[in-house]
Protein 1
Amino acid sequence: MRRWLNENLGIPVMLLLRGWALNRLIANLPIAAIRYAYYRIVCGFSVPPTSAIWMGAQFTGGALDQIVIGERCSIAYDSFWVAGAAIRIGNDVVAGHRVEFYTSDHDPDDPAFARRDAPIVIEDHVWIGSRAVILKGVTICRGAVVAAGSVVTQNVAPFTIVGGNPAKVIRMRGATEFTYQINGTPLFS
Ligand SMILES: CC(C)(COP(=O)(O)OP(=O)(O)OC[C@H]1O[C@@H](n2cnc3c(N)ncnc32)[C@H](O)[C@@H]1OP(=O)(O)O)[C@@H](O)C(=O)NCCC(=O)NCCS
C-alpha cells in the first residue's frame, strides 16, 4: 500500500499525507487504532498491540519507516519525533508527556549548513520524564531514567538516572529488575 502511494500519488501528495494530514488531522483522532493504521500504511512503522503512542504525536523526517517501537511501551501525549534517521524504542519503555526525539540537526560551522543525521536508540525498561529532549546519536541504555525537562546530548549508561541540560548523572536507579507492564493504549488516549 505504501509503495503504491509512493509510486502513484507523487511527492506533493505524500508530503501532504505525511505532513499536514499526519500531524494536524490523524494525530488528534481519539481512536488509537485509526492512528496506528495510518502510521503503518502511510508512514511505514507499526505500534504493537501491547504498546501506545498517545494522541498529539507529531512526526517529521525522511526515515519515518525506520521508527521501531517495542512491546509494552507507553509514549504519552504530544510526543515529537524528528526521524531523519532511525529511532528504535526497545521493550517496556515509558515516556512522559511532550518528549522530543531529534535524530537530525545542522553543522553550525559549515557555511552550507550541512545536515547531520544519527539514530537514537532507547533500550528496554527506560523511563523518560516529560518534556525531555533526546538528541541525535544518543543511546539510552537499559533501565536508565531521564528526569523531566532534561536535554540528553550523550549516551546514558544502564540503570543511571540523569537530569538537567545537558543531562548529567544524578544517581543510580535502585532496581535492575522490574515487574510493571504496560498493556496497550488507554481509551481515548
Ligand atoms: C528523575 C526523578 C524520577 C528523580 O526522582 P528522585 O530520585 O526521587 O529525585 P529527588 O527529588 O530525590 O532528586 C534527586 C536529585 O535530582 C535532582 N533532580 C530531580 N529532578 C530533576 C530534573 N527534572 N532535572 C534536573 N535535576 C533533577 C534534584 O534536584 C536532586 O538534586 P540534589 O541531590 O542535588 O538535591 C524525578 O525528578 C523526575 O524527573 N520525574 C519525572 C516526572 C515525569 O515526567 N512524570 C510524568 C510521568 S511518566
Protein 2
Amino acid sequence: MSEDAYASIREEVAKLCAEFPGEYWRAKDRDRAYPGEFVDALTKAGYLAALIPEEYGGVGLPLSGAAAILEEIQRQGCNGGACHAQMYIMGTLLRHGSELQKQTYLPKIASGELRLQAFGVTEPTSGTDTLSLKTVARREGDRYIINGQKIWTSRAEHSDLMLLLARTTPQDQVAKRTDGLSTILVDMRAAKQGGMTIRPIETMMNHSTTEVFFDNVEVPVENLIGVEGQGFRYILSGMNAERALIAAECIGDAKWFIDKASAYAKERVLFGRPIGQNQGVQFPIARAYAQMKAAELMVHDALRKYEAGENAGAEANMAKMLAAEASWAAGEACIQTHGGFGFAAEYDIERKFRETRLYQVAPISTNMILSYVAEHVLGLPRSY
Ligand SMILES: Cc1cc2nc3c(=O)[nH]c(=O)nc-3n(C[C@H](O)[C@H](O)[C@H](O)COP(=O)(O)OP(=O)(O)OC[C@H]3O[C@@H](n4cnc5c(N)ncnc54)[C@H](O)[C@@H]3O)c2cc1C
C-alpha cells in the first residue's frame, strides 16, 4: 500500500473537518454534548459507509481506506470516537449475517437512515474476561428474552441498533469454553419501550458512553447473527479491523500534537530566541515523531496483512499498542512545549490529551496486548 494511496480522500476529509474547528469541539466537550452535526456530515459524505460494499449502498473501500479517513479526522483535531464504531461494527453483520439481514440493514446504515453505533460487549463484573459475561438471552419460541447489564456501551443514546454479545447457553453446558455466546442485533428504539434503560457515565472526555440495563427485553430470533453459540468467534474476527482503525486514529492524534508542538516551538520567543532552538524542547518532539513513524509502519503492516486475508492478530494488536503510546508521547511533548498554555482549553491540547489517553485502555488494554504477544507470538506459557 503506497502511503498516499488515499491522498484525495484525506484532502476531502480535511475540508469537511475544517467546517468543525476547535470552538465546535470545545463547546461539545464543555457541555458533554454529542457532535451530531459532525457525524451527520460524515454520514452524508459517505465516510461512515466506507467499508460497506457498493452492492449494499456503501463505498466498498478496503480497511486501509477507512484507516485513512479516521487518521485524517484525528489529524485535523476532530474526534472520530463519536462515530468510528459505525465503520467496523457492521463487519460482523457483513461477514456472518444472512443475505436477508444484510439487505435489510446495510443499505439503511450506509444512507444514515439507521445508526449502528453501539457495541455491547463489556460488562461491569467480567470486564476483559469476556467469556465470563453474565447477560443472558433466553430463547422462548420465536423470541430471545434478554436480561443483564452492559457497561461502557458508547453512543448507545445516539444509535438505533446495538450489536449485543449475550450468553445463550450456560457456561457449564458448553463443549468448548468459547461456545455459548451469541451476537444479536437489538433494535434499541423498540427495546427502550420494553425494558432497556440507558444511563450515561460521566468521563474525563466527551465520549457519550453509558451503562445499559436489560430487564426482560424481547428481541425476535431473526435478529440472531450467524449461528447461535458462535458469537464470541464472530466478535474476535472483527477485532483486528477495530484495532487497526483505532491505531490509525492514534497516528492522526500524534501527527496533530507534533504539528502543533513544532509550530509553537518555532514561534514562541523567550530569552531572545525561539524556544524550539533549545534541544531540551526539540528532542521530545523529535522523539515523539520517531515513535509515531515506527508505529505508523506497524499500522501499515497490520492493514496489509488484513487486506491480504492473512491473520493480522499480532500486527493489529501491536499497532494499537504502539500507536496509542506514540500519541500519548506526542501529547506529552506538545503540553510540555506549550508550558502553561498547554493547559488552556482554547489551545485544544488538553482536550486532545484527554481524548487520546483512552486508547491505551479501550478497546483493549495494553496488558492484554502484551499477553497476546507473549503467548501467541513468543510461545510463552498461557497466563489466564
Ligand atoms: C470511554 C470508554 C468507551 C468504551 N466503549 C466501549 C464500547 O462501546 N463497547 C464495549 O463493549 N466496551 C467499551 N469499553 C470498554 C473497554 O473495552 C474496556 O474498558 C477495556 O477493554 C478494559 O476492560 P475493563 O475496563 O473491564 O478493565 P478490567 O478488565 O477490569 O481490567 C483492569 C486492568 O487490569 C488489567 N488486567 C486484567 N486482567 C489481567 C491479566 N490477566 N494480566 C494482566 N493485566 C490484567 C487490564 O489490562 C486493566 O489494565 C469502553 C471503555 C471506555 C473507558
